Amino acid sequence: MALARSLAVAVVGIEGHLVEVEADLANGLPGLTLIGLPDAALHEARDRVRAAVVNSRERWPDRRITVGLFPATLPKSGSAFDLAMAAAILGAAGAVPRAALVGRILIGELALDGRLRPVRGVLPAVLAAVGAGLERIVVPASNAREAALVPGAVIEPMHDLAGVLDLLRGRPRLDQVLPEAVTAVRPDPPELDLSDVAGQARGRLAAEVAAAGGHHLYLQGPPGTGKTMIAERLPGLLPALDTAAALEVTAVHSVAGVLPLGEPLVTRPPFRSPHHSATPAALVGSGSSVIRPGLASQAHHGVLFLDESCKLKYTLWNAN
After folding, report:
1. Does the residue 46 lie in any domain?
2. At which of 168, 202, 223 does a domain end?
3. Environment class of residue 180 by beta-carbon count within 10 Å: exposed (0-12), middle (13-18) or buried (19+)?
């Protein structure tokens, strides 16, 4: 029996769950069967993985391949399982040592030429892995700094499948450089400051009191009096996020796919201002098997500005 196992992480909501990827090679007509509640994007991994393996100058097993994702009752979605599937298949074929797959998490989407593409939800995935006692985690190089935010994680950033296979074979390439772990929150100065507002002493005072006490703020007045200008500068009055809050906000933004490139850690309170025609799904989140955080969730530990709230209420009532 040719069987190998690798480990991946499924992100459900903003929480990660360990997934065991098993690959079995048997006699019969060549083909790849994927089981374990995969979604449509994950079903397409069969073609991505095969093309990536072949274009990485590895031999694709001409056998009947069954790949199982366990626990079978947990819905799996997305393309972050590509790397773990490829490693398990090559491990079952004897192309890489099966022992190298033990205790190592593999996360990443494979391009057809074997390159590793970044994926969403890396931070909650690494948090789940470290919480389960698994410290060695292979991620795409573009996600390396985000993954390195988790204390205790040993991140192995890779650019392509060939580099991952060299690592598993005990011959890591010299161009694979580990990122420096981010151990302290380094907040950037706020872009908008309340000093930009001329006049409006009462409005400024209301914003300062709301920021100091963590209160809600209701702004009313004719158009053009500076209500939006004051609200946009409210995050500048709030203190920088501490490490725990920064990791929470970064995890939400990572799952939502709005984490800015080059900024692995959100250090300032976020600001979200949905349009008054925004749908309930855009506000609270949506998705059938995978829930994507809405604007209200993305404003966690920050400011949610509901401009033209009377029109927004009308939109929500009509939706219900």
Report:
1. yes
2. 168
3. exposed
